[in-house]
Amino acid sequence: MEAIYIDKHYNLVIECKQGSKKACYELYRLYSKAMLNVAFRIVGDITEAEDVLQEAFVDAFAKLKDFRQDTTFGLWLKQIVVNRSINLLRKRKLELVELEDGHLENIANDESWDDEDLQYQVARVKEGMNQLPDGYRVVISLYLLEGYDHEEIGQILNISENTSRTQFLRAKRKLIEILNRKGQVS
Asked: Has the keyword Cell membrane been applied to this entry (predicted)?
């Protein structure tokens, strides 16, 4: 069975493809704030996130004629923003160390994140996440906030699924450590 995507902005995309600057502006207005948040969660710097956002929209509008609308415009744009953000981090010389399976003995295989035991404010968690090293912040953001699974994260970052899981577990531990130091986790 084929998936059917209902894009509530389908007509705006069509108008934009036909050269309507007003439609392009409307798409930008509708998606810019959410896409800025996506970029910021990945790159961790608002100025760089704004740059990523602008470049992503330039790319999207330049490639709009190739957009077949087999998915929603928002999902397509989000993928461009994520890819641009990852590319920026790579330019910053982000290095995620590929781990061999033999190096995973000290890491629990299925450690759970217990939301009920961690009563803290979202703003404090975001602040703690911004203190994580780039590799940790990217993986935890893609997994928890953007909803990607470890296989998808591995493909996006060009790392193995195990490395994604390992980075995620380490990121959680580091985030909890940061929040403990600030007295945010009981």
From this structure: no
